[in-house]
């Protein structure tokens, strides 16, 4: 009888763990650098948080702050806030995640971070502040990030501001992404194309299409991917030219893939030409798959 009881109890525990592990994550959970803390692990004490903030490794900081999500420790905020400007991106990320959950103290930190973005002399600190505003998930930072994209002299800061808007996913950030699509620095344009497909309600597809002729091959490829995501029939001519004539294999593949995603029969002859004549087997394979997509869409 005892053995049967133990088996039954074991099965119940297993089912509980399986059902718990299968739940989907939301933005309210910690960023996925490490496996989530086990349900019954000890919560980090204020002393542990202070100690790890002063001398802990990135992994130790991550684990300790993740386990210190619940409970309030006003004194801890002064220890964690400097980590928003740490050289390690993971440390900055988990620190912002922890701070935005402080019912008491978050507002004051957010104001100071906004001040850094607006007026600090160090572009590295301004970029870190832009990252933090995105991780705070506070729409109150949207306007400041847009202003940074428009006015900051450092491409590092402008790119970080675009990434912040992407993380915030606030439709009010759309004008900032449009501005960044025309930035003089390719790193900023790359970030902007990535943000364009992830910002809710963004619809400036023509500005994305202009980047099909960008001098930076990564920007061209990302623009092609984005136009496939938007299923932009107006971009078929530009994608067709890119898929046949571009000198870079990755760019041609991206353009061919986008034509397949759009699924317009007008692209059939171009895809057949790429399948028959391109010197790259990868491009030919992409064209074959794109033609199959056209057939399914018909």
Cα-to-Cα separation, first versus last residue: 64 Å
Q: In percent, how much strand structure appears in the residues?
A: under 5%
**Secondary structure: number of strands:** 0
| Low-pLDDT residue spans | 1-26
Q: State the helix count.
A: 17
Counting helices, strands and paired strands, the structural category is mainly alpha
Work out the radius of gyration: 24 Å
- Oligomeric assembly: single chain
Strand-and-helix sequence, N→C?
HHHHHHHHHHHHHHHHH
- Helix proportion: 55-70%
Q: Summarize model confidence as the mean pLDDT.
A: 89
Taking the sheet with the most strands, its summary is: none
What is the 3D form?
Answer: elongated
Could you explain how this protein is built, in words?
It contains 17 helices and no strands. It is 66% helix and 0% strand. The protein is mainly alpha-helical and 298 residues long. The chain is elongated. Helix 7 runs parallel beside helix 9, helix 11 runs parallel beside helix 13 and helix 16 runs antiparallel to helix 17. The N terminus is likely disordered.
Can you tag this structure with a few keywords?
298 residues; mainly alpha; elongated
Summarize, please.
This protein is mainly alpha-helical and 298 residues long.
SSE order and pairing:
Elements (H helix, E strand, L loop, with lengths): L1 H20 L24 H10 L2 H10 L6 H7 L8 H11 L6 H14 L3 H13 L6 H10 L3 H14 L5 H8 L4 H11 L8 H5 L7 H14 L5 H10 L3 H14 L5 H10 L3 H17 L1
